[in-house]
Amino acid sequence: MTADACKDLEPASTSASVRGGNHVCPASMAWTLDNPLRRWLTGSRRIAKRYLREGMVVLDVGCGPAPMLLDMARVVGRTGRIICADIQEEMLAHVQRKAERARILQQVQVHLCEPNWLGLNPETADFALAFWMVHEAPDPDQLLAQIVDTLRPGGQFLIVEPRVHVREQDFEQILQLARQRNLVEIERPRIRMSRAALLQRT
After folding, report:
1. Residue 191: left (phi > 0), alpha (psi -120 to 50), or beta?
2. Is the pLDDT of residue 9 over 90?
3. What is the pLDDT of residue 15?
């Protein structure tokens, strides 16, 4: 999860959007990302119910404090797993504590990754989520390639970007990069304050 969700910034230019900004929201600001109002605004429960199924392995890329974790864990159940990947140990420690409190630790895997390297095994996940973070990755194209690599054939990827920071033409450029990585667009979900697309690995 990027610093865009912590403070208001001017919309990025097209070139900056494609290159990525590498802004990171500090763990001390986790509460701004993980609270009931934000979960309601982003439709966390609705997203989980619509796209996830029991037993799925879900990858939450750039999870931050993983605001959707509890909703996703309820849907995938005890036979499923949520992989929470982030570059900050402090954020992942927050996720671990939350999982312990909710008694879902057995369903959650926290994974520390590098800014330019996810470091996950190929064909691991049935579903991947990148919420408000792709445009701020150091290299969005490389990130998309690695996400595709972690998806099983037929796996789906929900990419959600903030309207206030990512213009329509910038979002389309991100989706063009995704198409070049063998992702096929399935639909454009309506998510508050966001531009979103559901993609599928061919």
Report:
1. beta
2. no
3. 36
Question: Residue 86 carries which side chain, given as an amino acid letter?
Answer: D
Domain 3-201 fold: Rossmann fold (3.40.50)
Paired with 195 in beta bridges are: 161
- Tell me the pLDDT tens digit for each residue of 24-43: 666 555 555 666 767 677 88
* Cβ proximity of 123 and 151 under 8 Å: yes
Helix (H, G, I), strand (E, B) or coil at 108: strand
- Find the range with the poorest average confidence among 6-10, 68-72, 102-106: 6-10
Point out which residues pair with 85 in neighbouring strands: 61, 111
Distances (CA, A) of 114 to 27, 85, 100, 101, 127: 16, 10, 25, 27, 21
- Is residue 112 helix, strand or coil? strand
pLDDT of residue 23: 59
Extents of the domains making up the chain? 3-201
CB 3 within 8 A of CB 24: yes
| End-to-end Cα distance, the chain | 27
Residue 87 contacts residue 26 (beta carbons within 8 Å): no
